[in-house]
Every structure is written in structure tokens, then in C-alpha cells.
Amino acid sequence: MMRALLVPAVMMSAAAAPAQVPAETAIRETMAASAAGWNAGDLARFMAVYADDAVFVTPKGLLRGKTAIAAKYQPSFRGVGNTRGALSFAFLEMRGIDPRHAMLFARWTLTGASTVESGMTTLVFERRGTAWQIIADHSS
If residue 38 lies in a helix (H) or strand (E), which one and from where to where? Predict the structure, then answer.
């Protein structure tokens, strides 16, 4: 069962900007859009959730920056889907760290024509402006 994400909303005047979407809702929507990009074979859409300075943990070490992370994923994108299969996430728990940071624990699943892969991911998000972006990704 998922625990509520406890991140206070930033108070803004109506003239300054629209009301902030609650963090948990915004992160779920952002992750759904990223998975939809993966499933459509759209690398840019998949990567939109990552901050330019994100860090990705691999078995061989750290990848630093959105460009390096995108290069890791590029080979499986073919424009009409992803050669590794359809991506989905099962959200296990979200935790607010402070008003600008949250952590998501989830299970990812790739469903291919004849195979299913699954693993765990821990994602640290930072709110930048009105968007929540991944600043750290450890997926295995």
C-alpha cells in the first residue's frame, strides 16, 4: 500500500501561476508520460522526466547528465516502440523529503513479445519550477 506523499504545496498568488498540483499526483503523471514515451519509441518523451544534471546508477558506475543517460537507452528506441518491450510501473511507496524533494520506490516491468523483465527502482525527484524531475535513478 502506498503512503501519502507529504510535501507541502508552495503558496502562490493566483496572478503569479496556477495552483501547484500535489506532488504525488504530479510525479505519477510524469512517470506515466515517461512510460508512454518509452512505449511509443519516443526517447525525448521518455527522458523528459530527467533533470539535465541527473545521475543514473549502473553496474559499472555512475552516468552523469541527461545526455549520458539518454545515450544508454538510445539503442532500444526505434520510433514505433521499444525493442525491450512495453514499460509499466507499480508504485510501492513515495516519501516526501522536504518541500522540493521526494523519493519514489517502484517496480518496473518490461513486457516483450515472449519475455517479461522486472526490477526495482529508487528515484529521487526535485521540484524545479512547476515540474518534478528525476535527479537520481538507481534501477536494477
Answer: helix 23-40
- Give the span between the Cα atoms of 25 and 104, in whole angstroms: 12
Cα–Cα distance for residue pair 28/3, rounded to 1 Å: 13
What is the SS3 assignment for 31? Answer: helix
Evaluate whether 121 touches 127 at the Cβ level (below 8 Å): no
Give per-residue pLDDT as tens, 39-97. 999 999 999 999 999 999 998 999 999 999 999 999 999 878 899 999 999 999 999 99
Long-range contact set of residues 7-13: C-beta below 8 Å, sequence gap at least 24: 7/96, 7/98, 7/99, 7/102, 7/127, 8/99, 10/99
